[in-house]
Design brief:
By secondary structure, this protein is of the alpha+beta class. The protein contains 16 helices and 12 strands.
Length: 485
């Protein structure tokens, strides 16, 4: 969790407020604070039904009548990692094309039908998947299924649509990366430091040259290869009758022609055996930043081991009591923010391997990068050496479980997670099991995981404000190739 805390001043620099002295006991403070109740972590028990259509489309239904709302997600098993060489940014570009009309819908009609039904919609491109989603009143279920089926069947891929979406994506890059402080940091640049293969190392936003070179034939080929029903998951959650929902799914999706799903490539590559460090110049950033990354166990093949690192990231950075927030921000005052997460886009439960644990810090210009890194290393060594108390781990586990509950309480959040778990693990039921799996992780496992985060396995990406290079840092290495600098 990234915690921006410009207000988090170290204790020795905090002004006195109202004459309060923490060492003077109040006459009212006669009882100690009661301890937290111990017990099992909160869990969910969402109802889940699944079936597969004749064309291979996998369907997950999760009825819940607590509110008259539905979430609909169609997730395709293709993301930035599947882009062909010379076509960087194509998965994201194609996501845009899917909103440009389809067989029975003119351009912008998808937007109008969802919004006129009282709903909201969007799409997003990730490392390993691309999803399209809506939240609507429950009486709009059939309309939504029709809309999604129509563009799965035949999106309007035309020279005009391609040209205008290339322009839109390039403008998005200018807005989100090139003309934004810390734009694209670290996710656009870190993969090139950490990985060697094109699939894992390239920038998913893409270069302008590759985007401009995209053709209608490229888009049609991408659609036929990856947007087959058998390469997708449809998830529906919320207030609906599952019998009728199945009828509607079969009616609108069942006649989409079947196509074989592509074989999922093996993207694995050897772990780092020597540290890597690269510097990235940012002309708009007001202060420096650094991202540190280590490979973690495969999120699918070694899910239990992987979950240990999910908790470890929270032990290190979630809340004022976390190890790195307490040390870097509150005690030493050498950073203004520190965050930790697993997965390039902080999607702990929607990732495939290879992926990484990332620690990201922002700090004042008068603090050296090496001071920040050395302090992080010291805290990692302390955790690896001394371990973690059961009470501390219980606190972190409870916060993570509470975050899961909060995320799933929203119908769309639940639907997105169901789709991701079904797509990556083949088991949407994991949504009801995650808290229990987290509860099984021991202090010894956290300690052992911390011991693996040593410099020899680490990639470091420094962000230096232009003209403010740190003379004490390691010599600059070649910058990853990118149009997004």
């Amino acid at each position: 969790m990234v915690r921006d805390t410009a207000k988090a001043v170290p204790p020795n620099r905090r002004p006195a407020v109202g004459g309060y002295d923490p060492h003077v006991t109040s006459p009212l403070a006669v009882q100690p604070l009661p301890p937290l109740l111990s017990g099992p972590l909160p869990t969910t028990a969402y109802r889940i039904e699944r079936f597969t259509l004749g064309n291979g489309l996998k369907v997950v239904l999760s009825p819940d009548g607590s509110a008259p709302v539905i979430g609909v997600v169609v997730s395709y098993n293709v993301g930035m990692r599947s882009e062909p060489q010379g076509r960087t940014g194509f998965a994201h570009l194609f996501e845009h094309l899917m909103f440009q009309g389809s067989q029975n819908l003119a351009k912008l009609e998808h937007f109008r039908y969802v919004q006129s039904s009282g709903g909201v919609f969007n799409g997003s491109t990730h490392v390993d998947y691309t999803n399209y989603y809506e939240t609507l009143p429950s009486n709009a279920l059939e309309r939504t299924l029709f809309l999604e089926a129509d563009r799965m069947r035949a999106p309007l891929i035309t020279p005009e649509n391609l040209a205008n979406q290339i322009a839109v994506v390039k403008e998005e890059i200018r807005l989100q990366v090139q003309n934004q402080p810390y734009g694209g940091f670290p996710w656009c640049f870190l993969p090139a430091v950490m990985f060697d293969t094109f699939a894992n190392s390239h920038d998913g936003y893409g270069s302008f040259a590759d985007l401009d070179a995209a053709t209608v034939a490229d888009a049609e080929s991408f659609f036929h290869a990856y947007y087959a029903p058998a390469n997708a998951v449809l998830a529906v959650a919320g207030d609906f009758d599952p019998v009728r929902a199945r009828e509607l799914v079969e009616r609108h999706f069942g006649d989409i022609p079947a196509r074989s799903a592509p074989t999922l490539p093996n993207f694995d590559e050897p772990d780092l055996r020597a540290p890597r460090r690269v510097r990235h110049q940012d002309r708009l950033a007001p202060m420096p930043a650094v991202a540190l990354a280590w490979r973690v166990p495969d999120p699918v093949e070694k899910f239990s081991d992987y979950l240990t690192y999910v908790l470890l990231a929270e032990v290190l950075t979630d809340g004022d009591a976390s190890r790195l927030v307490e040390r870097l921000l509150l005690r030493d005052g050498i950073a203004t923010s520190i965050g930790g997460y697993v997965g390039l886009m902080a999607e702990a439960f929607a990732s495939r391997g290879p992926t990484q644990l990332i620690l990201e810090a922002h700090y004042p210009s008068d603090v050296s990068t090496d001071t920040v890194i050395d302090t992080i290393d010291a805290e990692l060594a302390r955790l690896a050496g001394d371990g973690i108390a059961s009470a501390e781990l219980d606190r972190v586990r409870t916060r993570v479980a509470a975050g899961l509950l909060k995320g799933c309480d929203a119908t769309l959040g639940r639907t997105l997670l169901l789709a991701a778990l079904e797509q990556h693990h083949g088991r949407a039921e994991l949504i009801n099991e995650l808290s229990g799996l987290l509860a099984q992780i021991t202090p010894e496992q956290i300690q052992a995981a911390a011991a693996t985060l040593h410099p020899q396995r680490r990639a470091v990406l420094e962000l230096v404000p232009s003209g403010a290079a740190d003379p004490t840092a390691t010599a600059e290495q070649p910058q990853p190739e990118s149009e997004l600098s």
